Amino acid sequence: xxxxxxxxxxxxxxxxxxxxxxxxxxxxxxxxxxxxxxxxxxxxxxxxxxxxxxxxxxxxxxxx
Length: 64
Prior knowledge:
By secondary structure, the chain is an all-alpha fold. The chain has two helices and no strands. The protein has one domain. InterPro entries: Hypoxia_induced_domain.
């Protein structure tokens, strides 16, 4: 179970956060819609929360 969290889920979550962050930066640099920026920021915060939960579960599973 530990390896599943740390090897598979955590990298996927971190890649998702990175992609959404880059999309938000590109939108801001191009002067895109503020609504899109807000939506991407909310999605990034949600994905960061999920990544933190996965990291904490991996740490908890290693301790068991």
